[in-house]
């Protein structure tokens, strides 16, 4: 092993497929959840697209990474943050937001199909609550509370100091508590669960 890399990272650097699978299993779900809480700015690219770009970049640049498999999360999330920022800028330049084509009259009515509405509604509530926060607080609370990154990994992912992470986390949770109040949210969760 070289300078602080653990065995899993060393194997991934050598192209070991099992090591990459282990890193993917450990971080892919959290990355996708985190990206879905951030506004993309370009409706043509989804959180899955940005996550894919981040994984490809990580695979290309893993030889430059040094640290443990736990440190890998912050590095990967930082790559994804930069891809998301590029996507947002590109979307603003291209203005790729959908246009109204005349509403349901033009498109016709589609039959209702049962789906995962309760789960989507709960996720939507979280995304809307996070959207009320300033960008830094939203990103920090998303990293810490939604996907469970530690302070160091969050700092690496967002390109800010650990102190800034702690301050933004505290402020973001305080704002969310004031938004939610002492009552329960739409999904029945208490505002106290936001402060963990």
UniProtKB/TrEMBL annotation:
<dbReference type="InterPro" id="IPR007627">
    <property type="entry name" value="RNA_pol_sigma70_r2"/>
</dbReference>
<protein>
    <submittedName>
        <fullName>RNA polymerase sigma factor</fullName>
    </submittedName>
</protein>
<dbReference type="InterPro" id="IPR013325">
    <property type="entry name" value="RNA_pol_sigma_r2"/>
</dbReference>
<dbReference type="InterPro" id="IPR007630">
    <property type="entry name" value="RNA_pol_sigma70_r4"/>
</dbReference>
<dbReference type="InterPro" id="IPR014284">
    <property type="entry name" value="RNA_pol_sigma-70_dom"/>
</dbReference>
<feature type="domain" description="RNA polymerase sigma-70 region 2">
    <location>
        <begin position="23"/>
        <end position="93"/>
    </location>
</feature>
<keyword id="KW-0238">DNA-binding</keyword>
<dbReference type="Pfam" id="PF04545">
    <property type="entry name" value="Sigma70_r4"/>
</dbReference>
<keyword id="KW-0804">Transcription</keyword>
<comment type="similarity">
    <text>Belongs to the sigma-70 factor family. ECF subfamily.</text>
</comment>
<dbReference type="InterPro" id="IPR036388">
    <property type="entry name" value="WH-like_DNA-bd_sf"/>
</dbReference>
<feature type="compositionally biased region" description="Basic residues">
    <location>
        <begin position="87"/>
        <end position="96"/>
    </location>
</feature>
<keyword id="KW-0731">Sigma factor</keyword>
<feature type="region of interest" description="Disordered">
    <location>
        <begin position="87"/>
        <end position="106"/>
    </location>
</feature>
<dbReference type="InterPro" id="IPR013324">
    <property type="entry name" value="RNA_pol_sigma_r3/r4-like"/>
</dbReference>
<keyword id="KW-0805">Transcription regulation</keyword>
<dbReference type="Pfam" id="PF04542">
    <property type="entry name" value="Sigma70_r2"/>
</dbReference>
<feature type="domain" description="RNA polymerase sigma-70 region 4">
    <location>
        <begin position="129"/>
        <end position="177"/>
    </location>
</feature>
<dbReference type="InterPro" id="IPR039425">
    <property type="entry name" value="RNA_pol_sigma-70-like"/>
</dbReference>
